[in-house]
Specification:
The structure holds 2 protein chains of 2 kinds. By secondary structure, chain A is mainly beta. Helix content of chain A is 0%, strand content 48%. Chain A has no helices and 11 strands. In chain A, strand 4 and strand 5 form a beta hairpin. Chain A is globular, with a radius of gyration of 13 Å. In chain B, strand 6 and strand 7 form a beta hairpin. Chain B is an all-beta fold. Classes of the chains: A mainly beta, B mainly beta. Chains A and B meet through strand 5, strand 9 and strand 10 of A and strand 4, strand 5 and strand 10 of B.
């Protein structure tokens, strides 16, 4: 079974530029999550999708971050404009969300450096 | 909201010894507690989890224990090997179709050969 795929793996941009990250979850997984992991900390949830609907985006800085999952499969997370404090690893995770199964599986992440 | 804390922040053990990593959580409604291992440059990998109706779970050299009354849970690794060296994260959530994981800050485990 293929895991969660993310691209790009690394990205370096200047502040005020825009950037987009892509995620393809495990086949058949209805729930998709985007996390932000700042160096030395645990992942923090940014947004959660159930199929193509948003379940929780309470910690997403909506003035600069946006995310979509139009067809209920892959997803894109965008930052515009980027700030220095956005430097982090952006992790995508998915889960099947069938009753009794709540395990979240993570992709390799995209390391963003904002200069 | 939920708050998860991990202790200690770093741990160094000799190969072959046991390692114990402890976490506390604040929300008594939390009922699902996974542990993740993260190696350098990789995403977190689920290694074991426990649900609140179980006090202990084992999988080969790894075990997790849960004390709901005290609101803490621990990861136990026996017969440690150098490849166990990594950052370990505990997390907690209220189990459900829309479960949201709250992570601790992680602990760096170093296994000395």
């Amino acid at each position: 079974e293929a895991g969660v795929a993310q691209s790009p793996r690394y990205k370096i941009i200047e502040k005020r530029q825009s950037v987009a990250f892509w995620c393809n979850p495990i086949s058949g997984h209805a729930t998709l999550y985007w996390y932000q992991q700042i160096l030395g900390q645990g992942p923090k949830l940014l947004i959660q999708f159930q199929n193509n609907g948003v379940v929780d985006d309470s910690q997403l800085p909506k003035d600069r971050f946006s995310a979509e999952r139009l067809k209920g499969v892959d997803s894109t997370l965008k930052i515009q404009p980027a700030k220095l404090e956005d430097s982090a690893v952006y992790l995508c995770a998915s889960s099947s969300s069938s009753w009794g199964s709540y395990e979240q599986y993570f992709g390799p992440g995209t390391r963003l450096t904002v200069t | 909201g939920e708050n998860v804390e991990q202790h200690p922040s770093t741990l160094s053990v000799q190969e072959g010894d046991s390692a114990v990593i402890k976490c506390t959580y604040s929300d008594s409604a939390s009922n699902y507690f996974p542990w993740y291992k993260q190696e350098l440059g990789k995403g977190p990998q689920l290694i074991i989890d426990i649900r609140s109706n179980v006090g202990e779970k084992k999988d080969q050299r790894i075990a997790v224990t849960l004390n709901k009354t005290a609101k803490h849970f621990s990861l136990h690794i026996t017969e440690t090997q150098p490849e166990d060296s990594a950052v370990y994260f505990c997390a907690a959530s209220i189990r459900g179709a829309n479960s949201k994981l709250t992570f601790g800050k992680g602990i760096t485990l170093s296994v000395r050969p």
